[in-house]
Structures are given as C-alpha cells and as structure tokens.
Design a protein that fits this description.
There is one protein chain. By secondary structure, this protein is α/β, with parallel strands linked by helices. 33% of the residues lie in helices and 19% in strands. The chain contains 14 helices and 20 strands. The strands form five sheets. The chain has an eight-stranded mixed β-sheet with strand order 1-2-4-3-5-8-6-7, with helices on both faces. A four-stranded mixed β-sheet has the order 12-9-15-16, with no helix packed on it. A hairpin with a 6-residue loop joins β13 and β14. It starts with a helix and ends with a helix.
C-alpha cells in the first residue's frame, strides 16, 4: 500500500512539474515575442527619402518602377505575382472574378498572417482603384502603397503598425477593360459606379432596408465586388477616382430626388473618416473647389448618384465607404505619379487607422467565454455592426465623443456600456459578456444592416453583466494567446489589480491601460502603462492551468501526508 501511495505521489509530482514547465515556457515565449515586436516597431521613422526621390529613380527599385508609368493589365498581374514572392511573409493574392473581357479581377491582401489565410481578430479595410477605366491613378498608387509597406515593414513604425493591426485589401483595378480601352465604362458600356443595387425606392423615395434587391443586370465586375464584400466583414473601404481633389461620403442618393445634403445615420463618423484622409493629404484641404469644407463633401450635395458602390456597401454590408477623388485631372501624365504618391501616402495610411482603430472596438463573449455573434449599435443611431463568429470581435468607426454602446444577441440578455472615444486617435476598447436569457434558447446569429431603424434586435433586455473598457493605441497585436495577470505584471510596470480573482475582461488588449471594469462583481483598475500582450477573463488558459497546478499540488501533498502517516503506524 505504501509503495502504491508513493508511486501516486511521484506521478502527481511529475504532472505538476510538466504543467509548471509548460506554463513558464509558454509565458516566456510570448513575452519574448511581444518584446521583440515592440523593440522593432518602436523605432520611429525619419522623413521618407525613398518616397520623395521616387520620381528621380532613387527609391526602393520596385517602388520607383510602379511610380514611373502606368502598367498594362498584363504587367499589373505579373507585378502582383512577383510581389507575393518577394514579400511572401505579409501577402497573398485572391482572384475574385473576371471582367467582361475575361481579365482577372485581382486583390492583394496584406498583413502579418495574410500568407496563410488564417483567421485573426483584426479589422479588415479595402481600397478599390480604377473603377472608371479612364481614372487609372489608383492602379499605381495602390501598387506603390504595397511596395512601401513591404520595403518599410521592419524599420517604419506606421508600416509595422498597419501590417500588425489591420488586414489590408488592395484591388488596383476594378475595370481593366475600361482601362485598356481608355473609356470610363466597362466592356459592356456600363458605368460600374451606377450599377450597384439601389438604396432608394424610386417611387416613394424611402430608403430600402437590407438586403437590397438586385437589379438583375449587374455587370460581372459589379457582381464580383459584391461577392467579395460579402465574403469578408470589412470595417470600411474607399474607392479611388479622378476629376477633383476631395473626399466624398454618403449619401450619394438623396431621398428628395434632387441635389442637396443627404445625411446618413452615421454622418458624424463619415465626416470624421473623410476628414482623416483630407487632412493627411498634402493638398486636399486647400483644393479651391472644396476649401470651404476642408476638402470633403457629402455626395448628394455635390451631385446625386444612384447605384453607387459606397451607398450599397454601407446599407448591405455594414461597411463605411468613402470615395476619394485624388487628381483634378483625369489620367494625369505618368511623370506626376511619384508626386501624387507623395501627396497621398500619409492619407492612404491615415484612413484605415481612423476607420479600423480610432473608434470603438472590442469582443462579445458569453458567460462561459464563448465568442458570440452580436449586433453592436449606438444609442440614437439606427445602424449596427456585427461581431465575428470566430472571435466575437467587432469594430465600429466613430467620431470623437461620448456614446452608449448596446450589444444584442439572440437568446442572450442585451448589455449597455458608456464609452468616450478620444480625439487623439487611440480609440476605445469595450468588451461585453452577455448572460443567457432564460426565456429564450441561445441561438446567436447576425442580422442585416438596416439604415432605416428597422434593424433586427434580440428580444432579451437587461443590464450589463460584465464589460471592460480601455483605451488602445493604433498598434494592435493579432495574436490570440492568453496571458494571465501575473505575466502582465512582468510585461508592464505599475500594473495594479484590485480584485479578489485577478481577472480581466476578454479579448486582446494592447497599449495603454487606463480602465476600470467589472468581472464577476470584482473591480479591476490599471495604471496608464503599456500592456504588451493579451488577456482573457477568469476562464483564461493560463489562469486555468494555474488552478490545475495548485489543485495538483494540494492532492500530491495530501497523498504524501497520508502515506507518511501510514508508515508511522
């Protein structure tokens, strides 16, 4: 009997040692990972000589080449195929369809993790160029942006931040046939930016709720873009055009049937996004035609458009899109491409950051820490965004200000939380934990975006059961590794946890911690220091392993004590 007890004690001791080694090893590995990234990313970039001298041919060679002339359709595809070989660690290609003339419609996806197409809890943003065939600058500017990110990813903070924080989709040409023919329309003579489903009832003038009915005559390019937008939840997007110098935002179609300002439900957020681009652009705010409005315009106030991509994707796909007019001349001379790139580079970076990271974001979990598909709305605004089924993460572009967020999922009690979106662009993180509504079977599902105020809502109502709020900078970590509060203390100075369980809210939290939140009735506060890592609540992996180790220690101690007593007898 004594031998059996001793063997049991030895087995338990061995298990303890293995678990302890696994915890410490994983923690050390993750700490090294985050430390190495921050050491690399914290190197602030100097003024970009490569970009300034691109026209003179002194730039990083691929960047200089794409800014030297317009590429043919064949050259563009060949360049993209070469790019994913040279910059394989951050990129992959996706063909979403073909044009009327059979040309491939190719998308370049950028970001750490893009190569393997692994799902990650990070926001997605897209740029679409050359929708009108005779407006080709977007082709070369987007190729230039990709080359700049590849060349600067290990030395420029903004490049590292973009690739770590955002999944960036670049579609250099939506209308390769129009480009080849030097014509505005596609191969069938259709204007693609008038070809999307109508958002207004032409008879009553009322706005149509999602899903918007198809026209039945959508062109191949339009259908491909619609399917692409439906395959990935894009937080925001922008299409690139020519003929003016301005950032245009919805609505394009006015319900009054005439020219005039048509404010969308998210008008303040749209203005914020348009201003983010215009103010970061070298010349847009001074453009004579729109100087009085700071380089931005409401679409319908400028001129009314029906069937535009930005109106459709906003209503149907919960994606906030703006239209960028980046050159006052259509098809500007090739010798101006380098200057155009210089004028637009900071704006091309600023818009995704503003849309994806400067508003509200967070995670929605059930009380058993399962990610939920939930509708996240803002009190007083009739639209909502939907959290992802894989991670429960959501991203809501918002202008600086105070808001109340509401999270609703079918079968769960709704939750509310007040937030303040700061004006410094760091955004605010707000996580929700929803409790099961006992009167409904939990079957979470997403609803359709509805800008008319008829959005689908869950029946359950109630108070917040658990939420967390903390400000995060424009640098996000895509890794979903869980790090306990004890390891967080090693990674940041003066991180104070004033709770009985040492837990925190779910989801990645990166940057400056300045928060107070409730979890299971305890209060957690933190000083404003960098938190390099991710945390999850009381059911986090490392917290669970720590509990297992503690329990194993107690069992081993009890077994050995029992064996010792038997030997004494």
């Amino acid at each position: 009997m004594r031998d059996r007890s001793q063997k049991q004690g030895m087995r338990l001791t061995l298990i303890i040692l293995i678990l302890h080694a696994a915890v410490i090893g994983r923690a050390a590995s993750e700490k090294d990972q985050y430390e190495k990234f921050f050491e690399r990313a914290s190197k602030a970039s100097e003024p970009n000589e490569d970009v300034r001298d691109a026209g003179a041919g002194k730039a990083h060679p691929p960047l200089a080449r794409v800014l030297a002339r317009y590429y043919s359709n064949e050259e563009l595809v060949a360049h993209l195929e070469d790019y994913v070989k040279r910059c394989s660690s951050i990129s992959r290609l996706q063909t979403i369809g073909k044009s009327v003339g059979g040309q491939p419609l190719t998308v370049l996806i950028l970001g750490h993790g893009a190569r393997n197409a692994d799902p990650q809890p990070k926001p997605a943003f897209r740029y679409v160029g050359n929708m009108h065939g005779d407006e080709p600058t977007g082709r070369q500017l987007l190729l230039g942006l990709a080359e700049w990110l590849c060349a600067r990813k290990d030395q420029d903070f903004e490049a590292a931040r973009m690739l770590e924080s955002i999944e960036l989709h670049l579609m250099p040409t939506a209308n390769p046939d129009g480009f080849e023919n030097h014509l505005r329309n596609n191969g069938n003579g259709r204007d693609l930016n008038r070809d999307f489903p109508e958002v207004l009832n032409q008879t009553s003038g009322e706005r149509i709720p999602a899903p918007l009915p198809l026209r039945g005559s959508e062109q191949p390019e339009t259908a491909a873009i619609m399917a692409w937008a439906s395959s990935r939840s894009f937080v925001a997007s922008a299409s690139m055009h020519e003929g003016a110098l301005v950032a245009n935002f919805p609505w394009d179609a006015n319900d009054h049937g005439e020219k005039g300002y048509a404010a969308a439900p998210d008008d303040a957020a749209f203005r914020f996004l348009a201003e983010a681009y215009a103010q970061a652009h070298a010349k847009m705010v001074q453009a004579p035609e729109f100087a009085a409005t700071g380089g931005i315009t409401n679409g319908a106030e400028w001129y009314e458009v029906h069937g535009s991509m930005q109106d459709w994707v906003y209503v149907d796909r919960q994606c906030m899109e703006v239209t960028l007019e980046v050159s006052e001349r259509k098809w500007p001379h090739e010798r101006t491409l380098a200057d155009l790139f210089n004028d637009n580079l900071q704006a091309l970076l600023a818009l995704p950051f503003a849309a994806a990271l400067a508003g509200a974001s967070g995670f929605v979990y059930s009380t058993d820490m399962e990610p939920l598909v939930a509708n996240i709305s803002v009190t007083g605004v009739s639209t909502y965004v939907t959290s992802s089924p894989t991670f429960g993460d959501f991203y809501r572009p918002l202008a600086p200000g105070n808001y109340e967020l509401v999270a609703e999922a079918e079968g769960y009690r709704s939750a509310r939380g007040s937030i303040e979106v700061p004006a410094d662009g760091i955004g605010v993180r707000h996580n929700f934990t929803l409790a099961v509504d006992s009167t409904h079977k939990p079957q979470p599902k997403s609803g359709s975006s509805d800008t008319t105020g008829r959005a689908s809502r869950s029946a359950g109502q109630g108070l917040t059961t658990s939420l967390s709020t903390n400000k995060v900078p424009l640098l996000g970590i895509s890794d979903t590794t869980v790090i306990s509060a004890s390891l967080s203390e090693q990674l940041t100075e003066e991180y104070v946890v004033n709770s009985t369980d040492g837990s925190s809210g779910p989801g990645p939290q990166v940057g400056h911690l300045d928060a107070a939140w409730s979890v299971g009735g305890s209060t957690v506060t933190g000083s404003r220091k960098e938190l390099r890592g991710t945390q999850r609540g009381t059911d986090g992996t490392l917290t669970w392993l720590t509990a297992v180790v503690a329990a194993a220690v107690l069992v081993a101690w009890a077994v050995r004590r029992r064996a010792r007593r038997r030997r004494m007898w």
